[in-house]
Write a structure and sequence with these properties.
Layout: E1 2-11, E2 14-25, E3 30-34, H1 39-42, H2 44-54, E4 63-69, H3 81-91, E5 103-105, E6 108-109, E7 115-116, H4 121-130, E8 135-139, H5 143-146, E9 153-157, H6 160-168, H7 186-189, H8 199-211, E10 215-219, H9 225-229, H10 241-253, E11 268-269, H11 277-281, H12 293-296, E12 301-304, H13 312-316, H14 319-324, E13 326-331, E14 334-339, E15 343-348, H15 364-371, H16 376-379, E16 384-388, H17 401-418, H18 435-438, H19 444-455, H20 460-476, H21 484-492
Parallel strand pairs: 3-4, 5-8, 8-9, 10-15, 10-16, 11-12, 12-15
Antiparallel strand pairs: 1-2, 2-4, 6-7, 13-14
Helix pairs in contact: 2-3, 8-17, 17-20, 19-21, 20-21
Amino acid sequence: MLATVRSANLFGIDGRAVFVETHLSAGLPSYSVVGLPDTAGRESRERVRAALLSSGLAWPMQRITVNLAPATLRKTGSGLELAIAIALLVAAGELPDAAVEGTGVLGELGLDGRVRPVSGVLALVGALAAAGVGRVVVPIENAAEAALVDDVEILPASRLADLRDCLKGELPWPDVPPPVSPRVRDDDLADLAEVRGLAAARLALTAAAAGGHHVLFAGEPGAGKTMLARRFTSILPALDHRRALEVTRIHSVTGLHTSGALVTAPPLRAPHHSASVAALVGGGSLGHIRPGEATLAHRGVLFLDEVAEFAPSALDALRQPLEERVIRVARAGVMVELPADFTLVACCNPCPCGRTDATCRCSDSIRDRYRRRLSAPFLDRFDLRVRVCAPRADEPAGASSATVREQVAVARQRQHHRLAETRWDRNAHVAARALGELCAVRGAARLRFLEVCRDLRLSGRGAARVQRVARTLADLDDVEAISDEHVEIAAGLREDIP
């Protein structure tokens, strides 16, 4: 007796369709799982058996073989257990074959027969939908999230016994519960109007939000660097539906998303400076590769406070993702590609003690060693580098986050129209070969641009970054042509730091 049930498993942040094949044959009662399962998969026997018995269903006293196909793909986690249980019921004649035709099954089983939620259900349901599955059984806690996938009927399940009755048509399917409102974070309530002074730093932050430019703030403790950076997401427009689905899928895989609602706010990730290379860019063993902070910040902001305290190897590991906006984690025979399209905001002090005036007691060798923690190639990835000086108490507050967000939205709309026929969506992403067409500097502004490049001794890459920022400043002013003022401001926002 043979039965097959469709399911899916995670590979990185993507879902892969899996066939769960169950075969019952004569012989001594036994249970074996083949098809490269991990430890959790091999332990499924006890959970599936206890769940069936707790649900009042018989455990087949036969030789049971479970195959997870394709056999060459490693299977991780316990999300295939519900599919194994349903396949056993079909093979034993408890359920008709038609009950699971065109149906995918996802879920972990508790010993009492309860269907437990799984991580990454959005990616898993998407993989089944791409494989032609029209309806998917998911744990009731995951149903709201699974319903975000279009053109798939979601069937919630809370207990194995009730699921058996629903598949046989003896009970109606429960309704998909509404998503839970996400918890409001303190960062979501922060407003840029709370920051006084810091005009240059505020302009740099606005340009970074509009054009996708990476920004570095350097200054003494208490100058307002962290306060400013923490308010970056407050001036970012909400994600559109496609990008929101990308972010929700990533956070679902890592277990960060539990509300079931679509994540429409750009994420902010702020890892501690003790973070390792794997924590920042992702890693793990073969078959268990997990995304890092750079991927969790996809379509949002990666904030590195006290960036000079991070391990140099960890920072240099970000150099390639900052350019290509993707991370490729390679293991023996396996390559996993993780998205990493984020804006990097970093803050640092001028020296270990944080002072630059006469109160600084650091020796020249200590200061040099501190500065060498940030390699030149890493610093070169920042389009915007600004020295931040503490504002005076009587300096006025600037515009609110809502006002700046509207300005950023207008600038992004100009970029969208200009870059619509290209593969780029932000000024910071435009390749150097296309700058002459998409970020052209003409007339008097061109002469000033050449002077700036000569006076600052900019390399080709540095000149290109100034040109991109100048284009963003023009977009923020809602004008078509880059002026010499835009060029001068762009050059002034690229200081020699540290």
